[in-house]
Amino acid sequence: MLSSELQKLLKVSIIGAPAVGKTTMLKLLSKHTIDRLYLPTHGFDLKTVKIDDFTVKVWDFGGQGGYLKTYSSDHLLGSDLLFIVTDSSPRNVLRSRELINYAAQFVGKDCPIIAIANKQDLQRNDGRMDPRRVEEILNIKTYGLTAIDPSQRLKLMDIIRKELNKISIRKRLKEVAF
Ligand SMILES: Nc1nc2c(ncn2[C@@H]2O[C@H](COP(=O)(O)OP(=O)(O)OP(=O)(O)O)[C@@H](O)[C@H]2O)c(=O)[nH]1
Ligand SMILES: [Mg+2]
Question: Which amino acids bring their CB within 6 angstroms of ligand 1?
Answer without folding.
Answer: 16, 18-24, 36, 38, 40-41, 62-64, 118-119, 121-122, 146-148
